[in-house]
Amino acid sequence: MPELRHDPIQKRWVIISTERSRRPSDFKVTSPPPDDKFCPFCEGNEDKTPLEIYSIRRDGTLPNTPGWEVRVVPNKFPALMIEGEHDRAGVGLYDRMNGIGAHEVIIEIPDHGSSMADRPLENLVKVFTVYKNRLIDLIKDRRFKYILIFKNHGRVAGASLSHPHTQIIATPVTPRTVAVELESARAHYQLKERCIFCDIIKQEIEAGDRIICIDENYVAIAPYASRHPFEAFVVPRAHRHDFGESTEEEIYQLAVMMKDLLVRLKLSLGDPPYNFLFHTAPNVIPQPRRPGYWETLSLDWHWHIEVLPRLTRTAGFEWGTGFYINPTRPEDAAKFLREVEV
Amino acid sequence: MPELRHDPIQKRWVIISTERSRRPSDFKVTSPPPDDKFCPFCEGNEDKTPLEIYSIRRDGTLPNTPGWEVRVVPNKFPALMIEGEHDRAGVGLYDRMNGIGAHEVIIEIPDHGSSMADRPLENLVKVFTVYKNRLIDLIKDRRFKYILIFKNHGRVAGASLSHPHTQIIATPVTPRTVAVELESARAHYQLKERCIFCDIIKQEIEAGDRIICIDENYVAIAPYASRHPFEAFVVPRAHRHDFGESTEEEIYQLAVMMKDLLVRLKLSLGDPPYNFLFHTAPNVIPQPRRPGYWETLSLDWHWHIEVLPRLTRTAGFEWGTGFYINPTRPEDAAKFLREVEV
Fold first, then answer.
1. A230 in a domain, yes or no?
2. Conformational region of residue B57, where left means phi above 0, alpha means psi within -120 to 50, and beta covers everything else
3. Quick check: A7 and B151 CB within 8 A?
4. pLDDT tens-digit readout, A88-102
5. Residue A248 sits in a domain of what CATH number?
6. Nearest chain A CA: its distance from B60 CA (Å)
7. For chain A, first and last CA: distance in Å?
8. I need a surface site. Which of A30, A95, A316, B221 has the fewest CB within 10 A?
9. How far B72 CA sits from the closest chain A CA (Å)?
């Protein structure tokens, strides 16, 4: 059973994941692993993954056989486990709980070599629809506080298999980064009765110099305080707090915007490694110790996607301080991406 | 002039470092840079660095000529600049200030190929003495809130030059990671009138299973909630809040402990890439809005070093949540390192 451990000084949860544990001696060889010879995510290899949870597939084809377009399976080496109770406990000065959660893999397409930027819009619409469907299914489990949808593209960005896939992890605590954003948004709303994200979108559209691409429905912005060169923040222009409540039309529009952005990154930067991740509404669980805590969530929170190209390395400075050195002005990055001929 | 920008949602400062800026097109080639052909840090190349700030050198040799043992120079591509004022300002919803600070490089030894683990203790004592001397010099500048000493060993850990060196950055804000630790330590002290680090050291020595190496003066612990496999926390066993107040004897004892730890990492893991960084007392600046804020610093804070081997990659999960998946139990890592025959 994986374990969540809390550090009382750095106020941080860490997952000690014994399921994917490596023996100390496994770390000795640090050369990159060989490229996939055999790919368990390719069509025809359905029996090499755990049994599928969900799929979009051709009529008449059976689960765990060929014929799928998007396929969801449990992660074979899950960071968190679906079975069990939290068993929260103190360990002297520390705190721990069982690593309860879910860890799924969304295989985005049967074609092994296809990059999300190159695929037909139709595929992206299906993939984003699956994100939504898995989110609203997982959020029913009241043991989970947050559902994180994230994609690692390229080995430098942490992808261990090159076949295009996205991961979903349901966590038993609200992750710190999300908690900080929730608190900031709440404080802003309490003072001003306005959504901080709506305020930022308005300010950015007026300024214009950090806009990467924009249409009537979504906007991709180079954040004012970008941590990484070419970082992007993709957000619905209208106030929406929960990605899981997106309509079919909104999902389609999101796919249009994400494809536009990913094509710009690919054409201008040569298929860079990247991560993207959703910051959506946390699971709305009544909190006896914080009455009213969730009541204004639909007013003060605004879901968004962070897209993080991984073009620079993080070093001691970033690890030691929690702040970042970015060698590229966000205004320059936005201009460069804006001017790509798509 | 570099710029510090603040994100009001994530509550994070970022340095936009125009001095080390790269044009967007420079990112296109993502192959690793060629290995150093010419090394500006080697003896004989003193004229290829900015003028030296400090050195330990043989009697009778002149600054910026051969004959040095440890040499400190300004970083040629500084993330922060020494000249100027903060010029704090709001930019709509955001905040900015000039990137005032210092960025120095400590060249640890003339020998290009020497790893810290392999060097005579005498060299480490000199290097750590230089850390202390630079710290107590930089902290005199009241524009600086924090002095960060950190080392990147190996390209994966962010070292752009392979010649052994350490960096010092003086920052105009207290970095978030350090601020969180300061607050936790303060809250613990206010409640209990005990140092949280002293409490943890006591608990860890009693438990024993996360101790990597220990002597009368220092202890290296695998933190209970380690983010990375083989992470270590090196700390003086006696209560000391400021590395800059270390005596000659304490510096010698620290060099003994750090050499012991680095040799264990090297022998067992094959010279892994790593970062280490000091968390010492911040610059004690009277804070008109927080009277009494610093008064108990010498009681509630305890300086320490984080040693972070970089054996796993951070991916979307870590970036999106601020928590970490560690595939190795800290107890297993500690046992493995403890049992290395040094």
1. yes
2. beta
3. no
4. 999 999 999 999 999
5. 3.30.428.10
6. 36
7. 48
8. A30
9. 18
